[in-house]
Specification:
binds 2-acetamido-2-deoxy-beta-D-glucopyranose, Cellobiose_DH-like_cyt, Immunoglobulin-like, mainly beta, about 10% helix, Cellobiose dehydrogenase-like cytochrome domain-containing protein, 2 helices
Length: about 240
Amino acid sequence: MRTALFTAVTALVAPVVLGQERDPSSELYTDSSSNITFNTWSPSPFVTIGLALPPDALETDTDEFLGLITCSDPAGWCGVSLGGGMVSNLLVLAYPSPSNPEKILTSLRWASDYGPPIEPYNGDAKLSQILSTINATHYQVLFRCEKCLGEWRQGEEQQGGSFPSSGGFLLFGWCHASSAPFGEAECADKAEVSQHDSQGLFGAEVTSFTLAPSAEEYALWAGKASGGMVDDECVA
Ligand SMILES: *[C@@H]1O[C@H](CO)[C@@H](O)[C@H](O)[C@H]1NC(C)=O
Ligand SMILES: *[C@@H]1O[C@H](CO)[C@@H](O)[C@H](O)[C@H]1NC(C)=O
């Protein structure tokens, strides 16, 4: 009796305590091999972006996150801007390796204008892969991105920054191109890309659904990121 009452009260109270509902444009996704749960957004049929933030990211601005990018075109490349438009925002480029189709290459980039060159990013932000998968129709990469949110620098200078996570809203950009990166594309930081075929912005509401359930769980998930950039054969 007591248990039943307690359960009933909890059921009534819990949603109020959390005070939050999942952003209806998002979908929860648990990756079966890492067991990491991401809240995901699919702003385009080509691109899905997932986020898992530290559990206190709504109280304390986080400068890191665990990310997922799924791209539905293994012949091309996808990009995500961690702040909105492509100019003066940290950009993540992802594409299948031209020489090793098992591997997804990732590179942090920077654009000071709309158009090439999309330079390699030179600053504190660091992306390390957790795992990647590829099949005939999709490729997916899971990663940890440190010093990737909040204020960031390119070279010596403060260049911009994303919205603070405590504000409950992050703005991202996405793009997709159907043509493969070229040039020295075996090396993700040297790969050149032609203009994307589609692009857009989307807002990600940060709710409890976007947060790891506990600091322990976040540390466990983040600890799986030992894969480095997987920028591959970057011979100087
Ligand atoms: C997967 O994660 C959930 C919570 O995030 C946890 O309860 C469960 O035990 C985990 N499963 C495995 C196999 O690690
Ligand atoms: C291919 O990979 C995507 C993304 O990981 C997945 O959603 C899809 O089910 C996979 N397709 C097949 C046929 O396994």
